[in-house]
């Protein structure tokens, strides 16, 4: 039986109604108990299997999720019902939420269609409407149950690679063909990659199965394997990452010796540094750009809860203590529309809707997880209209006594904990390795469930970790089980998976989808057999799903079984290291912009007011106030400072109550410099990220960095040259400041290929963007420095020199110019200045801004 509960306000002219559709046989008393639990009796009322009526309305519009989309409200209601009535739901039963609007204005159908389209994102939501007459005749809206109904036969297909190069190219680009001629989605494999796969299976004397090809594509994707940073480029044989980023850190750590603050770099889910004698701090910043372009809320919430899992998966499990964000958008007032298809049926969301959705997504993910979010930034440029950049980060904390070398051992159980697997997130890794276009799969978008993840996080961090119930742990992110299990299998050198044991959201999911699905709130652990019983009981007591899905071994192969039949058997070395090396070449074409002629300024007050109104200078208090920064009670320097509530560029937290130590985070980002000089752009980003921490009272010797490269058209030799120069600057300035890189991420194809309002083909590429995040340790929290002026008689000092370097500045942009003279960082001079400032700041007779 399908039941419907509508919860509305007792105020007669309110038309927004919460709807809960329950597919389960329940009696009237049970339904009343449920409805009462969902209703605030002071100002709300409810109807059970009856329509809500108001005195005056002309239209009813109902919105809800499409089948398979995560519905967090419905999940919570389902838990309420189970707890209250002490009942269970079978796989064919469920709860679904929706919103009903009763429109009191007398509008025509054309207007209602426009309103309906504005209320939803058609990639994840449904909408239907009725006139008042239809509503009354039908006794309300239809009872819709958006359940997934799959008709596939759970079969595994062979993929014939003995075809022409043209067909191989098509497979690599568009994916495996279904029997009806449609394709499954991008594999992001170029011809050299797919030929290498073809040769491997020819030597085995067989074709690959669909799950094997999908798994290799995920593992070799730019998103997961970072091939552009790894492969040779020009004279650099060992790649940009090894030659610049990693080498800088190795040399800095060696030079510092006993002063080295790093504990883990580049090998774990996050980077780690020493906090004090008893604790380690981890930090990781991720991007979630492509999903956020399609579904801003889902992309952002999935991003933030995903990077939370990078903290939980650091070492043996770190507690997330701080969240971080950074958003690059087009002007939210931009009115022009762009489309993914020539027929203009697939409109990209407006910059305003993307901004609102992303902000709300991080809000929901952070606040519901009980993690403070004190620091972040917003940056605006219309080149981000095609694909926004969504940076999300998490700082974690783990006691040194809980730290250990994690390693999956042969004989350990493979245990998946957390949420179930569905179709959401299919091809997320490969989709993010390409430009956004009409062929981008809508199924690559997920919506995170922070409540489910909070239960998972707490039981891991607060109990299972310190009881030493597992040997290794990692996140289920991009690529799902395909990535997490195969990555952990490198620790033991082999794995055997029983795929039919994976818990599913609904029956009928094809094996390859189970393997690569990126359904959220999942971790993979290696649990010794003699600890499984205790681990299992603990998870059950905390209402966290834990399932054995196979065993780690030392066979040298990644083997996946499905109902006792081998459907995947790939050599571990080939899976992880078999991809061909591509030698990249760069081309240097210097961009020269017209140098603006700015007249002598007569009224600096007007200029100042105009500058303060610019999107990249004005505050974003409206974001900071939405994000809880006081939860966990660790804030020292808060996101808004002074009487004017000014957004600070550095936040400080004190995670251990009885320790004088504090931790500071900040960032630097200058995409407006990129088209002029990417070397100086990177230098300015590093310098700013460090300077912001020094200004808050951090010793430059206690700072570490993270790099996030968000590039565009990264197969273009000119863009590769810019990338090379930015990476070179990372090495040079990190070495000068002796600030090691501990973690990073790259997203290399932030381009949009589509059509404008006149159906003309367009390509929009983000400016080459490098976010440098900084983290530092303050040994005495009482010497932390905030930006607000302390006394009326305080003097202002400018440290450093001001030069004729306005290229890429906001002032030039305000005058519709770019210029050529970007600021050039003098690292050696600045380091002396920052060290001197820090020494002065330790003298409490001084007061600093």
Automatic annotation (TrEMBL):
Protein name: Phosphoribosylformylglycinamidine synthase subunit PurL
Subcellular location, record wording: Cytoplasm
Enzyme Commission numbers on file: 6.3.5.3
An individual GO BP term: 'de novo' IMP biosynthetic process
Lineage: Bacteria, Candidatus Roizmaniibacteriota
One annotated GO molecular function: magnesium ion binding
Catalytic activity reported: N(2)-formyl-N(1)-(5-phospho-beta-D-ribosyl)glycinamide + L-glutamine + ATP + H2O = 2-formamido-N(1)-(5-O-phospho-beta-D-ribosyl)acetamidine + L-glutamate + ADP + phosphate + H(+)
Residues that coordinate or bind Mg(2+) 2: 310, 475
Keyword field: ATP-binding, Cytoplasm, Ligase, Magnesium, Metal-binding, Nucleotide-binding, Purine biosynthesis
Gene3D superfamilies: Phosphoribosylformylglycinamidine synthase, linker domain, PurM-like C-terminal domain, PurM-like, N-terminal domain
């Amino acid at each position: 039986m399908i039941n419907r509960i509508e919860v509305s306000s007792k105020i007669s002219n309110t038309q927004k109604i919460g709807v809960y559709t329950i597919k389960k046989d329940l009696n009237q008393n049970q339904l009343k108990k449920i409805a009462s639990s969902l209703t605030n009796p002071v100002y709300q009322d409810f109807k059970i299997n009856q329509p809500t009526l108001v005195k005056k309305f002309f239209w009813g519009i109902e919105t809800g999720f499409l089948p398979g989309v995560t519905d967090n409200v419905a999940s919570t209601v389902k838990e309420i019902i189970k707890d209250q009535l002490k009942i269970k739901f079978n796989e064919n039963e469920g709860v679904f939420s929706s919103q009903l609007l009763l429109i009191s204005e007398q509008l025509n159908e054309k207007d209602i269609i426009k309103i309906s389209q504005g209320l939803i994102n058609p990639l994840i939501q449904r909408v239907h409407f009725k006139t008042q007459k239809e509503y009354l005749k039908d006794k309300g809206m239809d009872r819709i149950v958006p359940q997934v109904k799959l008709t596939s036969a759970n079969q595994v297909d062979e993929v014939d690679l003995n075809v022409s190069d043209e067909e191989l190219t098509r497979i690599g680009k568009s994916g495996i063909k279904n029997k009806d001629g449609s394709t499954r989605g991008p594999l992001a494999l170029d011809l050299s990659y797919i030929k290498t796969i073809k040769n491997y299976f020819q030597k085995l004397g067989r074709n690959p199965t669909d799950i094997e090809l999908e798994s290799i594509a995920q593992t070799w994707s730019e998103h997961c394997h970072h091939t552009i940073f790894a492969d040779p480029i020009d004279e650099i044989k060992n790649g940009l990452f090894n030659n610049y980023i990693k080498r800088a850190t190795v040399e800095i750590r060696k030079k510092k010796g006993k002063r080295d603050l790093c504990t883990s770099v580049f090998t774990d889910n996050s980077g780690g540094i020493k906090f004090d004698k008893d604790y380690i701090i981890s930090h990781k910043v991720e991007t979630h750009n492509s999903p956020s372009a399609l579904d801003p809320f889902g992309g952002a919430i999935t991003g933030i809860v995903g990077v939370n899992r990078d903290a939980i998966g650091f070492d043996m499990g770190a507690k997330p203590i701080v969240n971080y964000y950074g958003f690059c958008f087009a002007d939210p007032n931009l009115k022009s529309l762009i489309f993914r298809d020539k027929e203009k049926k697939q409109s990209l969301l407006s910059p305003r809707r993307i901004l609102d959705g992303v902000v709300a997504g991080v809000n929901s993910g952070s606040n519901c997880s009980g993690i403070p979010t004190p620091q972040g930034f917003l940056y605006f440029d219309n080149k981000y209209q095609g694909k926004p950049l969504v940076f999300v980060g998490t700082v974690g904390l783990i006691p040194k006594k809980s730290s250990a070398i994690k390693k999956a051992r042969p004989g350990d159980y493979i245990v998946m904990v957390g949420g179930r697997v569905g179709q959401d997130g299919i091809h997320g890794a490969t989709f993010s390795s390409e430009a956004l276009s009409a062929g981008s799969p809508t199924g690559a978008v997920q919506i995170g469930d922070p409540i489910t993840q909070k239960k998972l996080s707490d039981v891991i961090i607060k109990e299972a970790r310190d009881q030493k119930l597992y040997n290794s742990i990692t996140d289920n992110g991009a690529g799902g089980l395909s990535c997490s299990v195969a990555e952990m299998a490198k620790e033991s050198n082999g794995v055997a998976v029983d795929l039919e044991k994976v818990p599913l959201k609904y029956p009928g999911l094809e094996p390859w989808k189970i393997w690569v699905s990126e359904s959220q709130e999942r971790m993979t652990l290696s649990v010794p057999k003699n600890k499984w019983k205790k681990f299992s009981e603990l998870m059950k007591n905390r209402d966290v799903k834990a399932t054995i899905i196979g065993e780690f071994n030392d066979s040298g192969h990644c083997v996946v079984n499905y109902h006792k039949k081998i459907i995947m058997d790939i050599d571990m070395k080939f899976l992880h290291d078999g991809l061909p090396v591509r030698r990249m070449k760069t081309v240097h074409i210097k961009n020269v912009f017209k140098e603006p002629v700015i007249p002598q300024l007569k009224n600096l007050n007007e200029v100042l007011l105009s500058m303060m109104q610019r999107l990249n200078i004005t505050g974003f208090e409206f974001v900071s106030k939405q994000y809880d920064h006081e939860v966990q009670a660790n804030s020292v320097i808060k996101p808004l400072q002074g009487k004017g509530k000014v957004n600070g560029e550095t936040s400080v937290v004190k995670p251990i109550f009885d320790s004088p130590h504090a931790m500071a985070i900040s960032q630097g980002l200058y995409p407006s410099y990129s088209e002029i000089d990417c070397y100086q752009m990177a230098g300015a980003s590093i310098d700013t990220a460090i300077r912001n921490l020094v200004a808050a009272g951090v010793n430059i010797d206690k700072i570490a960095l993270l790099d996030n490269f968000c590039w565009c058209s990264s197969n273009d030799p000119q863009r590769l040259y810019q990338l090379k120069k930015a990476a070179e600057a990372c090495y040079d300035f990190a070495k000068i400041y002796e600030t090691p890189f501990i973690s990073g991420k790259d997203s290399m194809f932030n381009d949009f290929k589509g059509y404008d309002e006149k159906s003309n083909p367009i390509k929009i590429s983000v400016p080459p963007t490098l976010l440098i995040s900084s983290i530092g340790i303050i040994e005495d929290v009482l010497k932390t420095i905030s930006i607000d002026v302390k006394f009326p008689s305080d003097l202002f000092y400018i440290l450093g020199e001001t030069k004729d370097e306005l290229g890429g500045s906001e002032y030039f942009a305000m005058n519709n110019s770019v210029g050529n003279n970007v600021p050039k960082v003098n690292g050696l001079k600045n380091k002396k200045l920052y060290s001197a400032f820090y020494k002065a700041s330790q003298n409490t007779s001084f007061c600093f801004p």
